[in-house]
Design a protein that fits this description.
Shape: globular
Helix content: 25-40%
Largest sheet: 10 strands, parallel
Number of helices: 11
Number of strands: 10
Strand content: 5-15%
Order of helices and strands: HHEHEHEHEHHEEHEHEHEHE
Structural class: alpha/beta
Radius of gyration: 18 Å
Length: 330
């Protein structure tokens, strides 16, 4: 296994990317782009290993944000507002995920930001899941300094807070939270010493320059995120983006490849939208440098490929779950 990064990496020596340079990568001949992305993948990772994460919604519905893609927003006709799961329910789900082969367990909550009472329960969840020997990740909305420190002390490995899209397109998607709010939360997470999981969603009606702008925002963080989820919009009924035109599958594959080239040592996660992808498109994504997936039949509110389908696909491709901890955690 060729894994050269064995500690949280610094980005000071990495290239600073302009949006124009990243857009030029998107426009490369497809074969050249794929070849370059595969070369970079092999410099830092076992190209046939995939990191498996399972995502559980610990608090569903009733969110006060107006994200145009999300059924959990109280602004849209979406899912029912439910109370937070009990710690025991979360631990049971984590044990099941571990038995199914997942190495990381992600806990997501539909909040703008957690309350003090919420944090007490989440901290206990993190401790209990980590005690199972799994990596832990949480996505809870915006954090203040005290909340970030609570999660660090609890042992949280990764905090997810996606940028969603480029700054100039952001206002088309959400109005209740500023782009800078997202950057501030990520900065707090980084300063606390936790690993950053941050990516975005493509296929929301953005143009190529805006897609490149999202990648530039992520790649130019210092350091860039250790985990980068790339989501293909799942058009959910009742949301403002439900009628958005589909993104060409090869444009999605290109996004994976460009993320790999600009963030060579990150885990690039093939995230939401896989249920609608053929095996062939997913195989191209792995060839383009994706080396992490959400594993399990359900994401927060959207469906996900069944475990048996994922296992069958990995078998056909000669791929296997990443047995060791992520390099960033070693």
């Amino acid at each position: 296994m060729n894994q050269q990064t064995q500690a949280p990496f610094e980005n000071s020596a990495e290239k600073i990317w302009s949006v124009a340079e990243i857009e030029a990568l998107f426009k490369l001949p497809f074969n050249d782009l794929m070849y370059s992305a595969q070369q970079v993948t092999r410099q830092h990772f076992d190209p046939n290993a995939v990191q498996l994460s399972t995502l559980l919604s610990i608090k569903t519905g009733g969110c006060s944000e107006d994200c145009g893609y999300c059924t959990q927003s109280s602004f849209h006709a979406g899912v029912e507002n439910k109370k937070m799961l009990e710690v025991e329910e979360v631990v049971k789900a984590a044990k099941a995920a571990k038995e199914a082969g997942a190495g990381r367990f992600c806990m997501g909550a539909a909040w703008r930001e957690p309350s003090a009472e919420d944090m007490t329960a989440v901290v206990e969840m993190v401790k209990e899941v980590r005690a199972l020997g799994m990596e832990t990740c949480a996505t809870l909305g915006m954090l203040n300094d005290e909340q970030t420190e609570q999660l660090r002390v609890a042992g949280l490995d990764y905090y997810n807070h996606n940028l969603d899209t480029a700054p100039e397109f952001y206002g088309n998607i959400i109005s209740t939270r500023d782009y800078q709010d997202r950057l501030d939360t990520l900065e707090r997470v980084r300063k606390a010493g936790m690993h950053v999981c941050s990516g975005g969603i493509v296929g929301m009606g953005e143009n190529l320059t805006q897609r490149a702008g999202l990648i530039a925002q992520l790649a130019n963080m210092n350091p860039y995120p250790e985990s980068v989820p790339i989501n293909n919009l799942v058009k959910l009924e009742g949301t403002p983006l439900a009628e958005t035109e589909d993104l060409d599958p090869l444009d999605f594959v290109r996004t994976i490849a460009v993320a790999r080239l600009t963030m060579p040592r990150a885990y690039v996660r093939l995230s939401a939208g896989r249920q609608q992808m053929s095996d062939a498109v997913q195989a191209l994504c792995f060839l383009a440098g994706a080396n992490s997936i959400f594993y399990g039949d359900q994401l927060l509110t959207a469906g996900n490929p069944e475990v048996d389908r994922d296992r069958a696909l990995m078998d056909k491709l000669g791929m296997y779950p990443l047995a060791d901890k992520c390099p960033a955690m070693a």
